[in-house]
Predict the structure of FAD-dependent oxidoreductase.
Amino acid sequence: MHFDVVVVGGGAGGLELAAQLGRHLGKNLGGEKVLLIDRFPYHIWKPTLHEVAAGTLDAHQEGLSYTVLARRNHFSFSMGDMCALDSARKTLTLAAMKDGQGNEIVPQRTVSYKHLVLAMGSGSNSFGTPGIENAYLLENAVDAQHFHSDWLSAAVRASFSAERSLSVAIVGAGATGVELSAELLEAHAELLQSLGSNQRFRLDITLVEGGERILGGLPERISEQATVALRRKGVKVLLGTRVQELRKSELLTSAGEIRADMIVWAAGIKAADSNARLGLEVNRINQFVVDDHLRTSATDIYAMGDCAACPWEEGKLVPARAQAAHQQATYLSGVFSALLNEREASAPFVYKDFGSLVSLGDNKGVGNLMGGLAGKNFFVEGLVAKWMYMSLHLMHHRAILGVGKTGLLALARLLQQRVSGRMKLH
Ligand SMILES: Cc1cc2nc3c(=O)[nH]c(=O)nc-3n(C[C@H](O)[C@H](O)[C@H](O)COP(=O)(O)OP(=O)(O)OC[C@H]3O[C@@H](n4cnc5c(N)ncnc54)[C@H](O)[C@@H]3O)c2cc1C
């Protein structure tokens, strides 16, 4: 198999890039120029994983099949897990695919490329904490569905127990931890409406953060508002508390032991350890080191999104956010369109921070908008912030589905919720 552009990773950035390139380059060529590779058959926008975990978003409805997206956007799709790279020969290897019983379905394959883009995302960082296997992670749709299934079982168990309580500890108060806390509270409220009055149970959420404030990467005012909102909802927010060890249903921390029926690890970010074995320069969290044109240390190999360490201002790196992946997809689409038309693309990538929005459930959000109206910065909260937060998801869908289908999908989901309720109980 040979393609002009191969994109590995169909997430927030890689899928948008493949769709943009396919529409520009593949239309008259039946998708023969651009190949997208992902280890999963369907796409879920990662910033919605906390909703899938809580059950307020159904992964089966939300998931978009890559093969359908490929046909609509004129690129090719291959499911597979990239396991090796030969940058001298310009080939990569996809591991053999196996079924649930370990039988081989597809043997190991080699793909050759003219230009390669690595967009493989990142996961959380356990910082070597012993007992990490006792925690749930939220790194992909499978993790989120696994948590959801166990969370429903734990909820049913709690509703029949003598204590009538369920405790969840979330380690790491970045966007993932904060949004998951708020979403679980919302899901709990929905659950109580479905349960009989003799089955009601209490949900205790503890958010454990090693730093001195939550949402450490965002402006202080957002941290303060979010802390107040979470505490008002009954979340126990522990700041400056380092987790030393995880045990089954227990965290050993610098502030003592915390008992929890379920533990979620949502701290830090780290890219896959296997990145360091691909022969490209990586940093200490396995991100590919790129220059301001998103070029890695090997010729014709680019990296973008969470798996790339891209220089920004004041010696900082471009943050690992969906908006950065989106901007890099647009930038690389321009670069390849120029290169494949034998034009030189020389302008560097410049990240523009438009601010951040955090969902606090209950039709509430909080965030800041940078350089928006008349170049001023704004603080937003409440329903306006929540709507703007939801519009980011729609913008991602618009990039891969177009305006009409995004509208239809949003309407279909609204109607589905009217019929089946918001909470996925199975
Ligand atoms: C719960 C949660 C909430 C978030 N909220 C926000 C938010 O509000 N705003 C925001 O800006 N950001 C948010 N983020 C961060 C945001 O999701 C990421 O920054 C963004 O998804 C990064 O995009 P990406 O394309 O680099 O990687 P991803 O979206 O993670 O996609 C990576 C893709 O690569 C595939 N892949 C990985 N390895 C391989 C391999 N070896 N072979 C083949 N395929 C592979 C994966 O299956 C995946 O599809 C949130 C993240 C989480 C988990």
